[in-house]
């Protein structure tokens, strides 16, 4: 079974930034840094959106895993980064770090890593490392 997830972008008045909307109405802004190709710095650039997608997916995956394991954990924070190299730049590796506390934190982290939609999709293109942060 497959699902289609889409986001459409439209211009934000008097800028060159794009307002992205999901079918459910969530929004995100895509833009370039001020002075770069007409950017205003109102939103994320592409690499930031990719890091945000990776980190946001893992945030949700931690909660899904905790629920599935009936584990009492607390997710404090998730940090995601991507490294760019080359010309034109492309992502060559990514890193996800999470601070999760509770008796089953290690189990939840592993289950989330194994089930992460975005991380598993991207790993075919570049390596992604995971780390447990201290609380």
Give a quick rundown of the structure.
The protein is α+β, with helices and mostly antiparallel strands and 135 residues long. It has helices at 46-69, 105-115, 117-122; strands at residues 7-11, 18-22, 27-30, 73-85, 90-102, 128-132. A hairpin with a 4-residue loop joins strand 2 and strand 3.
Features:
135 residues; alpha+beta; three-stranded antiparallel beta sheet; 3 helices
Mean pLDDT: 96
The total of helices stands at 3
What is the share of helical residues?
25-40%
Low-confidence stretches: none
How many β-strand runs? Answer: 6
Backbone structural class: alpha+beta
Largest sheet: 3 strands, antiparallel
* C-alpha Rg (nearest Å): 17 Å
Overall form: globular
The share of residues in extended strands comes to: 25-35%
Measured between the Cα atoms of the first and last residue, the distance is 39 Å
What does this structure look like?
The protein is 30% helix and 33% strand. Helix 1 (46-69) crosses helix 2. A hairpin with a 4-residue loop joins strand 2 and strand 3. The chain is α+β, with helices and mostly antiparallel strands and 135 residues long. The strands form two sheets. A three-stranded antiparallel sheet has the order 1-2-3, with no helix packed on it. A three-stranded mixed sheet has the order 4-5-6. The protein contains three helices and six strands, in the order βββαββααβ. The chain has helices at 46-69, 105-115, 117-122, and strands spanning 7-11, 18-22, 27-30, 73-85, 90-102, 128-132. It starts with 6 loop residues before the first strand and ends with a strand. The radius of gyration is 17 Å and the shape is globular.
């Amino acid at each position: 079974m497959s699902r289609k997830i889409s986001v459409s972008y439209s211009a934000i008045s008097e800028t060159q930034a794009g307002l992205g909307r999901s079918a459910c109405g969530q929004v995100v802004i895509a833009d370039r840094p001020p002075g770069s190709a007409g950017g205003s710095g109102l939103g994320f650039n592409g690499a930031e959106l990719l890091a945000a997608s990776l980190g946001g997916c893992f945030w949700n995956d931690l909660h899904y895993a905790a629920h599935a394991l009936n584990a009492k954990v607390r997710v404090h924070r998730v940090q995601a980064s991507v490294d760019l190299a080359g010309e034109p730049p492309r992502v060559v590796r990514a890193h996800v770090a999470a601070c999760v506390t509770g008796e089953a934190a290690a189990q939840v982290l592993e289950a989330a890593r194994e089930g992460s939609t975005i991380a598993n999709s991207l790993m075919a293109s570049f390596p992604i490392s995971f780390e447990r942060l201290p609380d």
